[in-house]
Amino acid sequence: MKTFKEFFTLGVNKPTKDQIQDYLNRLGSSVRLLSNKDLIRSIERYFKTIKNLKLDHSGRKVLAFEEVCCDDCYDHIVEESEYQGKKVKLNDPIRTNENPKKKFKVYVKNAQGKVVVVRFGDPNMEIKRDDPKRRAAFRARHNCDDKKDKTTPGYWSCMQWRAGAKVDN
Question: From CA 124, how far away is CA 83, in angstroms rounded?
């Protein structure tokens, strides 16, 4: 059995202190409008893979932070199961060509323990997840922080829109 991390974290960028400082600098005048607590929450939500961010008293310099593993965000275990008589991998998104209306599919177990197919993604649109502004806009528009049910297309779309997330095939 492979963990989710082994399949999906190969391309995930872990932010450096300079990248976080650069993002803080780009916030510009809005830094003055936010309390340090709100500013830290905003930065941690943007980067997703950091926690316990420490800023100086003025809120203009990054002092320290801790990295969070992707397993904390998406705790999937990729395992084999059977769907309609064929062996499939659970929680492993793959490209699909059998349904022209969707780009990806993933096999998951629902609450009753039955294996179901979840299809998601627009085949006519390009994913630009490595552009921070587009990624932030997508995740805000789709309310990704509240997606918890693995049997919904929205959950898997949000999972794909992490920084550096890749689909193997």
Answer: 28
Q: Provide the token pair at 34.
A: 């936010």
Q: Domain ranges in the chain?
A: 7-72, 79-160
- Measure Cα distances from 75 to 54, 68, 107 in Å: 26, 13, 15
Q: Report the chain's terminal Cα–Cα distance, integer Å.
A: 19
Rounded average pLDDT per 10-residue block, the chain, 169 residues:
42 70 80 78 80 82 72 59 87 81 89 90 81 85 87 89 64
Nearest alpha carbon to residue 154 among 145, 166, 167: 145
Cα gap 89→61, rounded to integer Å: 45
Angle, vertex CA 70, rays to CA 69 and CA 75, nearest 5: 115
* Tokens found for residue 89: 């991998």
Residue 18 tokens, joined: 């300079």
